[in-house]
Amino acid sequence: MEIFGTLGPSLLTEAKLGALVEAGVTILRINGAHSDGPTTARMIERVRGFIGDRARVMVDLPTNKVRVANLSEPIVFRPGERFVIHAFQLNYPPLCGLVQPGDEVIVNNGMNRLEVTRADEAGIEFRADADGQLGNNRGLIFSRELHGADFPYFFARDLELIEVINDLAVDYVGLSYVRHPSDKEEAKLRIRNWSSLIYKIETRVAWENLEKLICPGEKISIDRGDLAGEIGLLNIPHAQDRIIRFAHRNRAEVYVATQFLATMEHSPIPMVSEVTGLYEMIKLGVSGIQLSEETAVGKYPVEAVRWIRDVERLVEAEGFLPSAHRRAG
């Protein structure tokens, strides 16, 4: 089983990367939402210089998720308060002309919901439902699909990253917010090694059109955080179960991400519920598990990886081999 370890600045030393790989990480992930082209190129070259072929490299393309940008400080809001995000404070300023009053926006992995109360080319006014804040690079998920001819699949950041991906022959490419087969086709036209693509299921459109979107033998990843923002947290257990079984039937590799060991960002020991969740997920026969904040910013990245490998060994010792579940699926 693959373990994806998301890289953060503190990990980019030979000793720390070596420890992560020795603990069991097989794919080192660079999140393109937090890294531009030149920075990503330097990270890839540094990782390969330290690790060689002991682990592979993946770059996640952020694609067309709208994010807050150019804030001097976070926007803090209270229930019922209104605030404005100006066009220049978005990674895609033309969005201001696509939204309408009444549109609902989900932020902070579903913790806050905002309502659009006014919009023009200069900016968008929102009304908050609860206490919260928005900082740089936070994503905005709109309940109404805005994507179409006026909303490109790749933003400027993606095109910059794709040049690096092609030049440095990255092992895997995560394709975020894939909604339609046309998104896949555009990616295949731009990315030289399109067999490296991992299609991330994290939108309502992708979830509802899974059979039309994913072909047999492809690689998919379930991003439970953004998907929960779109379909509701309560629906995630059923959704991930359905997607995994769909992948098994179609001989597709299926990876799962988001908050497996969130406690270990600050604690060397996970919660009982986290270990239980890992156990049940591995029993389902997933192809891999992705750690995000746990390794990128967490205090115990190596320990988190070891816990996953320990649980995997436990599952295997009990006879629940992933291959058996793929056949049963």
Overview of this protein structure:
The protein is an alpha/beta fold. The chain folds into two domains: 2-64 and 152-328, TIM Barrel; 66-142, PK beta-barrel domain-like (M1 Pyruvate Kinase, Domain 3, Beta Barrel). The chain has helices spanning 14-23, 37-51, 156-168, 181-190, 204-208, 210-213, 224-231, 236-249, 272-283, 293-296, 301-317, 322-328; strands spanning 2-6, 27-31, 56-61, 66-67, 75-77, 82-86, 104-107, 112-120, 123-128, 132-134, 139-142, 172-175, 197-201, 219-223, 253-257, 288-291. It has an eight-stranded parallel β-barrel with strand order 1-2-3-12-13-14-15-16, surrounded by five helices. A six-stranded antiparallel β-sheet has the order 4-11-7-8-9-6, with helices on one face. Strand 12 (172-175), helix 4 and strand 13 (197-201) form a beta-alpha-beta unit. The longest helix has 17 residues, at 301-317. It is globular.
How are the elements arranged and paired?
Layout: E1 2-6, H1 14-23, E2 27-31, H2 37-51, E3 56-61, E4 66-67, E5 75-77, E6 82-86, E7 104-107, E8 112-120, E9 123-128, E10 132-134, E11 139-142, H3 156-168, E12 172-175, H4 181-190, E13 197-201, H5 204-208, H6 210-213, E14 219-223, H7 224-231, H8 236-249, E15 253-257, H9 272-283, E16 288-291, H10 293-296, H11 301-317, H12 322-328
Parallel strand pairs: 1-2, 1-16, 2-3, 3-12, 12-13, 13-14, 14-15, 15-16
Antiparallel strand pairs: 4-11, 5-10, 6-9, 7-8, 7-11, 8-9
Helix pairs in contact: 2-3, 9-11
Q: What sequence of helices (H) and strands (E) makes up the elements?
A: EHEHEEEEEEEEEHEHEHHEHHEHEHHH
SS-based structural class? alpha/beta
Strand line-up of the largest beta sheet? 1-2-3-12-13-14-15-16
> How far apart, in Å, are the first and last alpha carbons?
17 Å
> Compute the gyration radius: what is it?
20 Å
Low-pLDDT runs: 323-329
**Beta-strand level of the residues, as a percent range?**
15-25%
Average pLDDT confidence is: 92
- Helix percent reads 25-40%
CATH class of the largest domain: Alpha Beta
Number of helices: 12
Overall tally of structural domains: 2
Spell out the CATH superfamily of the largest domain. Phosphoenolpyruvate-binding domains
Shape: globular
